[in-house]
Specification:
Helices cover 40% and strands 17% of the residues. By secondary structure, it is an alpha/beta fold. It contains 11 helices and 10 strands. The relative contact order is 0.16. Helix 5 links the parallel strand 5 and strand 6. It has one domain: TIM Barrel. The termini are far apart. One of its GO terms (molecular function) is indole-3-glycerol-phosphate synthase activity. This is Indole-3-glycerol phosphate synthase.
Amino acid sequence: MSNYLTKIIESKQEYLKSHQLELREKPKPARKKKLSFTERVRNKRTLGILAEFKRSSPSLGVINHSVAPTVMAGKYVTGGADGISILTDEVYFNGHIRDLEAVAAEVEVPVLCKDFIIEPIQINLAYQAGAGMILLIVRVLEKDKLHTLYQHAIRLGLEVLLEIHDEKDLELAMSLKPELIGINNRNLHEFSTDLSTTESLMRLITDPDIIIVSESGIKSVEDCERIAAAGADAVLVGEACMKHPNPEQLLAQINRIERRPL
């Protein structure tokens, strides 16, 4: 891991230790059945969309602190998002699990808990807040821990988006026989982005049943067209949505992009 990523994970470990009382589990809530993100993407011919709500990030600083998560989520659904990603990390992204809880209660599409998940308690909290999906970053987890967290989420009925950045990550992700893989175009050592990461890794994923989501650095409709041409099934779009004056219009344009046939 890069020094910066190591710092984030160490911070997350300290956060979990210092918030043990706050993080105590609640009874499992009754959950309304929603069509999964995987099913939604498989049932459409156009590019799938995970639209992201994030107030800020370490690489960009403040993005948008003026809009409520439920308001933005409503715009995302209007634009045709197949799922909504919520940054819940407090320290580096100014998010909170309450953002996810509020959005999950309002929308009919699945909600992704996007965080640096390193312990089962975080998965439990995401489930209790109404998440239908979680993110596991292959790069930050040892093989045994990755398998443990993945299976824990699956037992809860959650979808797992396994995030990779290179061939080593991909090899480990494939050992889990996943339904969802996210290709992160961001170099975690220097935080630069390059869409060719998706293009190169897509060539190595030959299982047509795996839904591939391209993440990071996707700023325009043209970027989405490039990703679709590479063979990806969906995109995760955050900064572009948060900065756009009419995110529903941007998403509607992306939602018209045809996926490359298998």
